[in-house]
Amino acid sequence: MRRTIVIVDDHEQFRRSARKLLELEGFHVIGEAADGADGIAAVEHLRPDVVLLDIGLPDTSGFEIARTLAATTAVVLVSSRDPSDCTARTQRSGACGFVPKDELSGETLAALLERGPR
């Protein structure tokens, strides 16, 4: 069974490319959102296995949303920022991990999900 994903990121081009990449690698993207409020609503409505969540959203921090969502679904944080700037906050958020946007792949995502929350 393919894992279902909701992508929450304010950059439409990233959502589009992440959707294409992950679907080609066996995931099933069932929803997208451009901000935190819509992301939370989408996750509550769609109940995905995984949330791919940008840390820098226009209305809130992805770290804050991760703390809320990690109790019910796996969260993987993404950003174009340097990962070393995010390590401690990622661990405190309850997310399974962090992936730089330019390193996103189905394999990387699957490895973080197998490892589980940090």
Walk me through the structure:
The chain is an alpha/beta fold. It is built from five helices and five strands; from the N terminus they run E-H-E-H-E-H-E-H-E-H. The chain has helices at 12-24, 36-46, 62-69, 87-93, 106-115; strands at residues 4-8, 28-33, 50-54, 74-79, 97-100. The chain has a five-stranded parallel sheet, sandwiched between helices. Strand 4 (74-79), helix 4 and strand 5 form a beta-alpha-beta unit. Helix 3 packs parallel to helix 4. The model has no long low-confidence stretch (mean pLDDT 92).
Shape designation? globular
Please, what is the oligomeric state? single chain
Beta-strand share of residues = 15-25%
The run of helices and strands is EHEHEHEHEH
Radius of gyration, in Å, reads: 12 Å
Main beta sheet strand tally, sense and closure: 5 strands, parallel
The number of helical segments is 5
Distance between the termini: 25 Å
Q: Helix coverage percent of residues? A: 40-55%
* Overall pLDDT level: 92
Spatial sequence of strands, sheet with the most strands: 2-1-3-4-5
Low-confidence stretches: none
Q: What's the number of extended β-strand segments?
A: 5
The secondary-structure class comes to alpha/beta
